[in-house]
Amino acid sequence: MRTRIAPSAILWLLVGAIYFLVPLLATLIFSLRSGTTGSCCTGANYGEIFRDPELWRSLKQSFILALETIAFSLALLIPTVYWVHLRVPRLRPLIGFLALVPFVIPPIILVVGLLDVYKGTPQWFYAEPYGFLVAAYVILAFPYIYFSLDSGFRAIDVHTLTEASQSLGATWRTTLLRVILPNVRTAALAGAFLTLAIVMGEFTIANLSAFHTFPIYIQYINETKAYPAAAVSLFSFAITWAAMLALLLAGRKRPLQFGGAR
Amino acid sequence: MVGSFKGDTGGVTLSHVEKIIHEPYLSDFKNSIEVSLVTALLGGLLGFLIAYAAIREGTPRVVRTVLTTFSGVAANFAGIPLAFAFIATAGTIGIVTQWLNGLGFKPYDHGFTVFGTTGVELAYLYFQIPLMILVIAPAIDGLRREWREASLNLGASQLQFWRYVGVPVLMPSLLGAMVLLFGNSFSAYATAYGLTGGSVPLVPITIGFNLSGNVLDDPHLGEALAFGMFVVLALMMLIYIPLQRISSRWVR
Hints:
- The structure holds 2 protein chains of 2 kinds.
- Chain A is an all-alpha fold.
- Helices cover 77% and strands 0% of the residues of chain A.
- Chain A is built from 13 helices and no strands.
- Chain A has helices at 7-32, 44-51, 53-86, 92-104, 107-117, 123-126, 129-155, 158-167, 172-183, 185-201, 204-208, 214-224, 226-250.
- Chain A starts with 6 loop residues before the first helix and ends in a 12-residue tail after the last helix.
- By secondary structure, chain B is mainly α.
- Chain B contains 12 helices and no strands.
- Chain B has helices at residues 3-6, 14-20, 25-55, 61-76, 80-90, 95-102, 117-142, 145-153, 158-186, 190-196, 203-212, 219-247.
- In chain B, helix 3 packs across helix 7 and helix 3 (25-55) crosses helix 9 (158-186).
- Chain B is globular and about 65 Å long.
- In chain B, 44% of the residues are buried.
């Protein structure tokens, strides 16, 4: 029996499509308007944004922050998750619960605590984005990276792989780097792209700890120039879309995903 | 690493906590809770209707694939760019505003503004609805089509099916998802900040002001407010966890 598409289904899908497409379209039209005459269509706003050295500086900073966060998180979590799966599977529910904590405690609460906890730490850490912000972002990224690594490790036979590599005389380091790592590569990549999207868009913590990352730059443009702001907003969507598409292509099954830069 | 945010409510004396249950902070909480309730209910309802429309039989499968992919992106797409998208749409010189002005209906003459509570709610729905779609889709899958066919064969009307089968089965999942949505919008900061510059007093915005020392400057008050938020969110989790347990019964 083949049923036709129900009229009410068409209605609701249409309502959804209008609500989600109109703001994107409006931003696009806005970005093409001329700053002096307000009429369509010119690429001048994009030119203005892309010529601004501050855009590239903040973009580069956010990108480096993202890479650093990903590197730290993976270096910390791959051995941990590996060890937990291999030796202490009892701890999995506990770590799973801890990983949910950053979901329940939003960035706005997190930043209050972090500013307090890290007060009095050395200048090279507290006053530098590559110290303080990365520490905060590693916490934000923890659930995303953990859950995708966890599902990655569940899909492989950790015990057999480890025993095989040990009986062939491999050290722990070789086992981890040459045997385990290639097997969880997709899971690690999926977590990494999600982290990239989050860090590139994170505003709350960066703003309140007064670091000038890419989202802070967007906010500055928003407050000062209307039409170029549309261009830079669309540019930022494009980055999010690219990271998400990369995630879809890299991963088979998508991990639990909500949160981000609200 | 985990320990660093466990201590984030430490060092709070009772006097600060006492302050936050009085004005003007009490109304911040009221505003935040109101915005969160409205967007959780509306977002939950619309998200469910859209998800159901995409999943029910008759709708081509490709619609569902496109919708879940888009929701995955949109649920993560929030903050400053989202705020600007709404300014470009419904701000004073926004595209839709100008279009309505051209039709002779001037929204800004009728008390509408995107920079107020309504605007914040409108913008929050942009990430609430996709989150609802992502969270509720597995539960809708659990609503087996055999049940629907069986009840229709037994002579039930559409309305009776929803009244006695559909809604009772989905209720725990719907409520659970809406609790999640509530927390999601309760903790949002960047979108409201980008949209209103802080003119709508929500708890996260007030915390931000206290921390950055822009308008107010009392980090301890910020900590006390953060503690208050934490209490609300912890209560939320206490409601969410049992609901999650009940609803997982029907999800394969």
